[in-house]
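USER:
Try writing one entry.

ASSISTANT:
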Amino acid sequence: MESIELLMQGFGGALTPANLMWVLLGCLLGTAVGVLPGLGSSMAVALLLPMTFALDPTAAFIMFAGVYFGGLFGDSTMAILMNTPGQASAIASTFEGHRMAKDGRAAQALATAAIGAFIGGMTAAVVVVFLAPQLAEWSTNFGSAEFFALALFAFVATSSVVSDSAVKGLASLVLGLGIATVGIDSTSGTERATLGIPAMFDGISLVTVTVAVLALGEVFHMAARIRRDPHAVAMRPSGRPWLSGAEFREAAPAWARGTAIGLPFGVIPVGGAEVPTFMAYDLERRLDRRRARPTFGRGSIRGLAAPEAAGNATTGTAMGALLALGLPVSATAAIMLAAFRQYGLQPGPLLFDRAPDLVWSLLASFFVAMVVLLIINLPFARIWAKLLLIPPPYLYAGITMFCGLGVYATSGSRFDLFMLLGIGIVGFVLRRHGVPLAPLMIGMVLGPLAETSLRDALLSSNGDYSVLVGSWITLLLYGVLLLVVLLTVRNKIVSRTRKDV
């Protein structure tokens, strides 16, 4: 009952005219960016990060949450209409969703995606409201050794799962950890990897790295391919923009199963919603094979409903894991963790005590954002599709300008602009070679926490390394980590064996 009372107080903060405006703005920006091929919520949050420091923290994070959820809606719109998912989490929606669009059922496909996302997101929001305080209370048992184990769990699990090559995932992680160590060591006062440049003594700004890797690197990547990739023409949504009773009954079980699959993946560091969306799609495909008249491959509504619900359910519980444990399970969550730190806040158990107004207003805004997104996506899908008419040179030139303005406004340093360009080129190279970016971001964000926790644990035990496995929590985390790695290795061996056959 206490959670319900606190949530009602949160609605009082989220439903003020100013915060409603930020929810609406975040949903609009997230959807607009998600609609544009190659962009996504992580890029939108990265661009907005240096521009929101003048805002009240509650308003800023309410807008970020709207962008986070809105990006998933926009990705799905393009996956259905153009067979061009904005992010990997929308790939599973292209298989049956685009076939529905080609069969003249684009509007029904968009309605299926919007309602599925709404159901998954709302269910996750309810779970987070009741689960996050308990997670936060449980995490008070965490000491230095437990936080190091948690960071190590995020490092290894994310880098091993998000890429076909574990080597590329680990390389991205090591690069992020290396960037995080640049500057003066706060404990020993030693210079680390500064090359003797005074501007690097304070380290490399997380804002600069985030904008460079996720935004400017994407601009370079798209610019390099712009003459080689033919532009698809957006398919106009046709037909009735709602589902018939039969279609709703057909999709409802898939929405429920997709939501159930997506919920637990919000607290498992697997790089985002890619894994649960594919699992939900694969489950529906297996069930479809047992039916008298299989529909997969011809525009199955269940094949679209399940991954959409799974993706938003994962995103919702990921926000709960971020708030209660300080654990980012995707690149976007890692950027939001960086935003908390820029405001002098540390997600985790103390956040619920030190900033309860922010936490509960943010949780209440999840419910508001789901309703807003349903309203602006069901009738306005064809308007979002028209954003594709913006000439790519103007679009990416504008993004580049905002990258530079955002970083310069944050630091006022020309050196940071050169750093932005250099790291942007690194981000471009990583993309060209298929190196995942999520491990890099998580390595940079959680690297300082892992280093500090390891030092504190060893200092408290006089250098005895057994302290790192001295509690049931650390043993549980390492055990689950081992299980995740073994399952990942097994799945990759099986997939390679099938390819060879």
